[in-house]
Design a protein that fits this description.
By secondary structure, this protein is an alpha/beta fold. The chain is 27% helix and 20% strand. It has a six-stranded mixed sheet with strand order 1-2-3-4-6-9. The protein has a six-stranded mixed sheet with strand order 10-15-14-13-11-12, with helices on both faces. A four-stranded mixed sheet has the order 8-7-5-16, with no helix packed on it. It is globular and about 75 Å long. It starts with a helix and ends with a strand.
């Protein structure tokens, strides 16, 4: 029996903990009492050059897609990598195994809730480990510079403060049980068009103030075990061979101790990547296989450098217990995770419009529901590409509504014929129209407009039934030329596998909406910041970030443009009021205190948002999010909220972080365009 266990462990690439005699005495890195750094160094010292190089790149084969093979003689376990960020996507398994399809990360960003982000990450990390993988390639936190980006749904919106706070919490959740989180795509991976070759020209200030701070927070606060270097060039240098980013920022400035893995085929060199500090090549050994060995033999790369490339991953694996307790295939708690997926989806839905209290619907009075549209036929579990999860189960929209209101007749129409759909709507108590988009990795959207006849469908149904609710299932902003003609709009994003149950729960008031937009919804394509060919998708392989700091709501504010729905916006089934703002300097930072009161008749949550305006001479956008807090309140209840700002919040990038002096403006409210409280602060 013991022999069988040892053979099985060897075949699976597992490491068995043994007493400090015999093998352990000869292999001191098996001693768990030593530090991860020492264990990693001892292991590397015992390896041959060929063994070292075999551990620096993935080796897919007929049975494995994302795999670094084990070294049984040294007790090195196999290393398996899984996609994120909204559940376990394509991984090492062939075929891909089912997992819980969570709502898109954009929905998580809409919660403005770090506690929810940690629970979301914890679920992903637990399933990654249960499905016997070491790494979850999550979260994706690239700033939504271009809302038409095909991977907008994977990210956390357009603001680095929001993305940084949620990413750090998400990462902590993923890593709670020994799964390594891999934050991506570092850095400024902001379009799919020519993504593997585009050269992004970004000035130093914009790079440091907009496109790097949330990665810094992911490393310094989230303590991410891994970082994925991205496809594009930044100012002429591919990110996976960029020493200023991989060594200068990550390791020297931020103290990163983990490993850097390339995106799928994002490496472009051997010597350059090695010297810059890329630790693991994905997907094969094009650059870190035979070419690396030849570079070592030719003296272009030292073997000491090879050791330095290998050490961070081994150190991280030791620190996460993956040598001593490798992940083992375990059944998923599907019922528990179904319930969590439903809660995440409900928490992330944004109520954009609710005229005359159209919502919540009353299950006692609704007798017939016309369920209409191309996104009403089945659950929208996520976007396309490497983040696509094979769900463990699904709840389609019809099933969700029928389960929630069993006494009502729910009739489905796919919306292919607007006239037919309008006739159904006119004969029903309520019409629920589900429209949306299908974002896809590798392809940017041609426009923010809904495809096909969806706009005409909404207009026809709204004209036929004054009780029309539009549910939008999209990965990012969409244009809504019909917005003013429908009484209620619910932004559901990609709700995940519990789509039908979650949407029904919000429509009928089981869950009171509290989410806010993490990205601005423009009224027209031309209103977005990067709206020239030079900016996006670029000319002659160069994308100019000439909008500088004016990204997202910063652009709309600086240009005086009115969005369709602003950043931070979202309604509730109750109402809130803000009062009593008090601000004061505290050491190097400042403190703002104010009151939030629930002025309505049902319990709900408000997201209080603090925006800071710099002195004009600083050259910053008019206002920037610097803090937020989600506040749960009973009817009539009030709570005093305190948001603290540090010295960095009052600084700009000028070759280093430099504090600004002068008069600042602090504004507090429920969106970037609704800020009833204002105070001045001189520093």
């Amino acid at each position: 029996m013991r022999y069988g266990r040892m053979v099985l462990a060897s075949l699976l690439g597992l490491s068995l903990t043994v007493p400090l005699t015999g093998m352990a005495a000869a292999q001191p890195w098996r001693d768990a009492r030593q530090s991860p750094d020492r264990r990693a160094a001892e292991l590397i010292a015992a390896m041959t050059l060929d063994e070292k190089i075999s551990q620096l790149h993935l080796q897919p084969d007929a049975e494995h897609q994302r795999f670094v093979p084990p070294i049984p003689r040294l007790g090195v376990p196999g290393f398996r990598i899984a996609n994120g960020p909204a559940g376990m996507g394509p991984a090492d398994d062939k075929p891909q195994k089912p997992a819980t399809a969570l709502p898109a990360t954009m929905a998580l960003a809409s919660t403005f809730d770090t506690d929810a982000a940690r629970r979301y990450g914890r679920l992903i990390g637990s399933e990654t480990r249960a499905l016997a993988h070491n790494v979850s390639e999550a979260p994706d936190i690239n700033i939504a510079r271009v809302p038409r980006n095909g991977r907008t749904f994977e990210g956390m919106g357009e603001d680095p403060v929001l993305a940084g706070a949620l990413a750090a919490a998400d990462i902590r959740g993923i890593q709670e049980n020994g799964t390594i989180a891999e934050v991506k795509h570092y850095a400024a991976n902001n379009q799919e068009t020519q993504r593997q070759s585009i050269d992004e020209h970004i000035d130093e200030r914009t790079l440091n103030e907009i496109y790097l701070p949330h990665f810094e927070q992911a490393v310094t606060e989230g303590r991410a075990g891994s970082v994925m270097c991205a496809y594009p060039k930044i100012n002429g240098v591919f990110t996976c061979e960029n020493p200023a980013l991989l060594q200068g920022k990550l390791r020297d400035d931020w103290g990163f101790k983990g490993f850097v893995q390339s995106d799928w085929g994002a490496a472009h060199s051997t010597v350059g990547s090695a010297n810059a500090g890329m630790n693991l090549e994905m997907i094969d050994g094009t650059w870190y296989g035979d070419k690396l060995k030849q570079a070592v033999l030719a003296g272009q790369v030292t073997e000491q450098r090879v050791d330095q490339l290998l050490l961070p991953r081994f150190r991280t694996m030791f620190a996460f217990g993956q040598f001593d307790h490798p992940p083992v295939l375990t059944p998923l708690p599907t019922a528990e995770h179904d319930a969590a997926a439903k809660q995440f989806a409900e928490r992330g839905m944004v109520l954009l419009r609710n005229e005359h209290a159209q919502l919540p619907l009353d299950s006692a009075s609704v007798r017939s529901i016309a369920l209409i549209g191309p996104f009403a036929t089945q659950a929208k579990t996520g976007g396309g590409g490497s983040s696509a999860v094979i769900p463990t189960s699904t709840v389609d929209p019809v099933a969700g509504l029928r389960q929630r209101v069993p006494g009502a007749a729910v009739t489905l129409d796919d919306g292919g014929d607007p006239a037919r759909a309008a006739a159904l709507a006119g004969a029903s108590d309520v019409a629920v129209v589900m429209v949306g988009d299908n974002e896809l990795e590798g392809k940017d959207r041609p426009s923010l407009a809904l495809e096909g006849n969806q706009d005409a469908l909404v207009a026809a149904v709204a004209a036929a039934n004054p009780h029309t609710v539009v549910v939008v299932k999209s990965g990012g902003p969409v244009l809504m030329p019909w917005a003013s003609s429908v009484p209620a709009i619910l932004q559901a994003w990609y709700p995940g596998q519990q789509d039908g149950a979650a949407v029904a729960g919000v429509l009928f008031g089981d869950s009171n909406p509290s989410a806010k937009l993490p990205i601005t919804f423009p009224a027209a394509d031309a209103d977005t910041p990067a709206n020239t060919p030079e900016q996006f998708p670029g000319v002659d392989g160069v994308a100019s970030y000439s909008e500088g700091l004016q990204v997202g709501y910063r652009w709309f504010d600086a240009q005086g443009k009115a969005p369709l729905f602003p950043f931070g916006y979202g309604l509730s089934y109750t109402t809130f009021a803000f009062s009593g703002l008090s601000v004061r300097n505290t050491g190097d930072g400042a403190t703002a205190t104010f009151t939030v009161r629930n002025t309505g008749h049902r319990a709900g949550a408000e997201v209080a948002q603090l925006y800071l305006g710099f002195p004009a001479a600083a050259g910053e956008p008019p206002r920037q999010l610097k803090g937020f807090e989600r506040v749960q309140l009973a009817p009539g209840q009030a709570r005093r909220v305190t948001i603290k700002l540090d010295a960095r919040d009052f600084s700009i990038w000028d070759k280093a972080w430099r504090p600004v002096h002068g008069g600042f403006t602090i504004q507090v409210g429920d969106s970037s365009r609704s800020l009833p409280l204002q105070a001045s602060l001189h520093r």
